[in-house]
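Weekly modeling sync, notes
Attendees: S.R. (lead), two postdocs, one rotation student

Agenda item 3: backlog of single-chain predictions. S.R. asked that every request posted to the team notebook include the full sequence so nobody has to chase files. The rotation student volunteered to paste the first one in as an example of the format we agreed on. Action items at the bottom.

Example entry:
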Amino acid sequence: MEKIRIITDSASDLSASTREDLTILPLAIRFGDTEYLDGVTISHHEFYEKLIESDTLPTTSLVSPAAFEETYARSVADGETVIAITISSRLSGTYQSATIAAEDFAGKVFVIDSYNATIGEGILVKYALLLKDQGLSAKEIVGILALCRSLSLQLLLFTHISCRLQTSRLS
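Predicted structure, as returned to the notebook:
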């Protein structure tokens, strides 16, 4: 049976994994001069507290190609095929980072743009794990995810709509 590793970024809002076949790479979050690693040095709860309390809005930074490449290399060296599922390329450069890093691992690393963030991305990751557990190959999983990602619908609830207006993410 093919050994498959699922890799995602912390925008999927999945908590630290108890599954050994799932790796979550953190995005960087900056509040003023302080930088945190999402889910590592700042929890989701702490993030939302800071969001409410802070006078300035946070900025985020993508997962670097080097971080993806290091994770891919370790996984491939362990005999695993990798499926990387990232936050939407419309929201972050993380998909591009993952794709750049995958260039040296043709046939061993597949990168999927989730077209989503948070819950939508997390659902795709959980579905990939379910399909893996059912014995599907990496190529089969990638094909199914490519179909499913465009069928999802995001419902967003902003408790502080002013935050969205300030960042021009809502018009």
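Discussion: group reviewed the output briefly. Residues 154-171 have pLDDT under 50 and may be disordered.
Action items: rotation student to repeat for the remaining queue; S.R. to check formatting next week.
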